[in-house]
Amino acid sequence: MDTPHDDLAITQLSDPCARAAELRRLIAHHDLRYHQLDDPEISDAEYDRLLRELQALEAAYPACITPDSPTQRVGAAPLVAFTTMTHRMPMLSLANAFSDDELREFDRRVRAALGDDTEWIYAAEPKLDGLALSLRYEHGVLVEAATRGDGHRGEDVTAQVRTIRGLPLRLRGDDWPPVVEVRGEVLLSRARFAALNAAARARGEKEFANPRNAAAGSVRQLDPRITAARGLSFFGHGLGTVTDAPWNASHLASLRQLAAWGLPVVPEARAVLGAAGCLAYYRALLARRAALPYEIDGAVFKIDDRAAWARLGTLSRAPHWAIAFKFPAEEVLTVVEAIDFQVGRTGAITPVARLRPVRVGGVNVANATLHNFAELERKDVRVGDTVAVRRAGDVIPEIVRRLPERRPDGAAAVVLPDHCPACGAAIARAPGEVVARCSGGLYCPAQRKEALKHFASRHALDIRGLGERLIEQLVDRDLVRDPADLYALTVADYAALERMGARSAANLVAALARSRSTTLARFIYALGIREVGAATAQALAAHWRDLEALMAASVPELLAVPGVGPTVAEQVRGFFDQPHNREVIAKLRDPAGAHLHWPAPEPPDAAPALAGKTFVLTGTLSAPRATIAARLLARGAKVTSAVSAQTDYLVAGERPGSKYERARALGVTVLSEDELATLLEVAGDGAPARPD
DNA sequence: TTACCTCGAGCTCA
DNA sequence: CTCGAGGTAA
Hints:
Low-confidence stretches: 1-12, 685-692
Structural class: alpha+beta
Largest sheet: 5 strands, mixed
Number of domains: 6
């Protein structure tokens, strides 16, 4: 083959674009040698020369630039903002196992569901500790990259992801389907992380806390050039599209196919047999954890036979053919320096342990909630105690246990205060109740602050610029006692507050003015009635379509609303019975005052989309049963409790019961939650999940 | 719950 | 330059 130089001499004059294509092919080849095979054929200097030649050529002949050119990795202009995009196939999460028994139980369920007594082959992989991504290749070219988001919609980070070296902008070969969606993880290797922090330290800048957060931050840079400089890595671990191809019959084979297309795939993936094979793999991985070049937080096991995936199904948000076996959460000892009592919106008193800050799982932990007083009593945590702390479910700090032998002499048991720390009103704990409550109601400044925060929050009246610190000042200076007072203050009043100038004050008043025009559901939600969240507020609004009618409703009438049980009905009735609440509502609606208003809701469709259809729900669903039932009822469907031949659909959640078997026996259509969501979307707007 | 990024705007000092 | 608010991710 000709050397690049000879090539250049021959082709440049005749066809610059052909030379550009040749250079791209060469660069892609050397990228693969370097990043994937770790076996470069040419020096970095030679590689750079190829890249510079391509850059020069493209600069001279811009018509030759293609989107998959390696020159397009960097240099893209900063974005103005991230946009969201919808995943064609939802990005699921995985069920977790934390013990050998839970893993064996998973295997047992798999075998039971597949109706086969043989051991199944699992694909075993490390669970990389990064940021989940979905890449989309169309006709072999990378066109889209998105974060997981809520699983259905994520952020478009294409420009950032294009800068990841070693990630092909064009798939190798030509045997790919027209559309390939690759699921995988972006991360920073330990080495890159250390190098970045060393550089930051040398410049006297702030260091990153851990590789995962550093990777997440790098992906969320508006300027892709910064992302490029961070040195991210990507590893694929699955496909987001279903393709009927021989290599797709086995998960491990599809990983090999990804590698053949030039994609880096999760290392150490291999086949293991049955639960015993999974456990052996897990132990071997755990032993090598510290020696790996990147952080992992467990192992993932997937049934390798993809034909079995369809039979096992995907229920709720996680597939039934895979499980993540997490490594035990790191436990760190620290000292309880204080125990504070926080007052929530409903007056609930929550004890919070203030800890001597310690690093747990890559972050500094200084607080741990004890949830309620009963929990505090059970754990018998006292000030001065040494406790073991971990981050449960990877997120929320939790006091696992205390070390009795390290308790200092004279450490006194924490007692539930008689009086609210914020307002001094009596604290009551009903016998047998777990939660203690401040009786101060909305006279309690802490409850007032929480109520105002809730009122201004995104799904309530969405008042931008009214944050925690501002609410603190407003309540502490007694400028605002209830939400209606917010609307009575002037720009000058707000401008007089700390860190508020004329500009901020004007913006806030404008945001308040915008919030006056709202919806009934948002208004009901904003009131902060106990037990009434976004979905229930929506159900109440849809049922009465008028605030006066709702305020006059009796408990039995309230019970008629789908999704409303005795607890909610009592709370709603009790709320509207309070003269104070009625006064605030009147103030909020007063045309001469706050003047909150909303359009009269549309009457429901004459013929609801799911009229005559009968549904049965089973298993653990992502929302309370009653909420999902309400959505179905709002569209005219019937929801019953037992599966019969008359049932049209069974909606199966996590760990469905005997109804699932019966539905299959009767040939009733079984829907996953995702399928139900699609059906509801198609069936139109009966009762959307959000009050909007 | 913590970490990180982005934006707007106030604060501080030249 | 620094802070508060708002968003996202695990």
